Amino acid sequence: MAAAAAATLCLPRPCCTPKIPFPSDSRISSYRIGAGKPQQASTKAKAGLSLFLDFVEPASLQLQLHEPSNALSLPTWAVHVSSVVEWIIAMALVWQYGEKSGYEAWKGLSWGMVPLLGGAFCACTWHFFYNDESLEVLVALQAALTLVGNATMCIAAYRIYKSSRESA
């Protein structure tokens, strides 16, 4: 199994900074209001000031995300998902063209696209589960659906060609 990698999200600094510079060390001294010299802070004040500093200085805040090293990045997921959505839209548009134009062979092209959509779902599912070895059957299924889908698209394209030659 792949080793886990940590992704770090660093938040930007706030637009306003505190007027008094606060040390981030736990052994801090505080300024008592009305007194001109520093005095040792109590334990509760130290803890409260430490929490306040963590809030005021968000550079110290880090969000740890633990994902495997083979996890897809957000842009890669955007490409995968948008490709599937585009394919579904293309199938619907081809079907509508076949209905509105009266060329029924175009509907066959839409049906020919279905196995390739199944292959896309296999790929996205496999990646969603971080390419788990127990789901490697999805890789073989994707390959088979791609082969079948390419054949059905070829047959559908030939049928469109043949129907256009008959109508001309």
TrEMBL record:
Keywords: Membrane, Transmembrane, Transmembrane helix. Coiled coil: none annotated. This is Ycf49-like protein. The keyword Transmembrane helix applies. It holds the Pfam family DUF2499. It comes from Lotus japonicus. The chain crosses the membrane at residues 77-97, 109-129, 141-161. It comes from the Eukaryota. InterPro entries: Uncharacterised_Ycf49.
